[in-house]
């Protein structure tokens, strides 16, 4: 069976739905911190599981005979800055625990999300390559860098098949994100529909790599379905998506929703955004496992507004 941690989160919700479509609900075990409630998830099973509880995690892996884990539970960049020590513990230790279980032969495959937050000082802002020096300046970025090194260590030393993607900012309408720096690009759609205006905590010309959730989920599945020996990267794959600024996103929304206005009040997350690249080179992922995208800025804006209007009715 497949286990998803953080299954009620922004990525987890949609990844669970796709894995249920592909493998059948009886083969998917969703887990999260929330109390049990079957209509929280499309998976056949739901377990309330704190991923830092190593014994409980091991018990659930054994009870359900889990073979593949999508380990998504984590704190994002904004929240991690507020709780650095807990963020380090939560973002790194459970990953090592899953890698240990794979080393012991309990698991055959692991997916773990890294982030463009691993990039930091001393590199160009544009078209950042797969193998540049990594100098993250946020707790979240430090934890993701450490996690990537643990993935590579367990693969190279023990042959553990753990795979990872450096996600850009992800945009979706099904489940709101929590605590990210790129989340302005999600909040703006909710405010566009509710108030036809938005005050952005990121300044107008701050470009960041972004991706529509559907493209992120399909890329994740493509990576996990690839042949092992096609993979030349065992830290984490760059995935660049599309780059835009709050100003460009607001213009795309205004085109669909005349009269929409944006203002700017940068907060502590501006410094996080300034430490990240504006665009990413993901040619290695294209070569190794056929990464492609479906949504550009216009298509994403249209799809978000259409679906959010439905959801917020
Ligand atoms: C965050 N959405 O903002 C996440 C992501 C690249 C950004 O890691 O923290």
From TrEMBL:
One of its GO terms (biological process) is L-threonine catabolic process. GO terms for molecular function: L-threonine 3-dehydrogenase activity. Pfam families: Epimerase (PF01370). Signal peptide: none annotated. It comes from the Bacteria. InterPro entries: Epimerase_deHydtase, NAD(P)-bd_dom_sf, NAD(P)_epim/dehydratase. Residues 2-240 form the NAD-dependent epimerase/dehydratase domain. Belongs to the NAD(P)-dependent epimerase/dehydratase family. This is NAD-dependent epimerase/dehydratase family protein. It comes from Planobacterium oryzisoli. The lineage of its organism: Bacteria, Pseudomonadati, Bacteroidota, Flavobacteriia, Flavobacteriales.
